[in-house]
Specification:
Elements: E1 16-19, E2 25-28, E3 31-32, E4 35-36, E5 40-43
Antiparallel strand pairs: 1-2, 2-5, 3-4
C-alpha cells in the first residue's frame, strides 16, 4: 500500500529508492525535465523538512 506523505524537494523519475534499517528512505539519481540527476534525498519518518 502506498500513501502520500510529503513532496520531494525536486521532481524525479527513474530513480532508485531503498528503505534503510532505521526506517528512513534514501532516494537517489533518476531524471527530471532537464536530464540526469546526481542528487539524493532522504526522508526520515516523523521529521519535518
Amino acid at each position: 500500500t502506498f500513501a502520500f506523505i510529503d513532496s520531494m524537494i525536486g521532481p524525479r523519475r527513474d530513480h532508485a529508492a531503498v528503505l534503510l534499517p532505521d526506517g528512513s528512505v534514501l532516494v537517489t539519481g533518476g531524471r527530471d525535465g532537464d536530464g540526469s540527476l546526481r542528487t539524493a534525498e532522504i526522508w526520515i519518518p516523523g521529521k519535518a523538512r
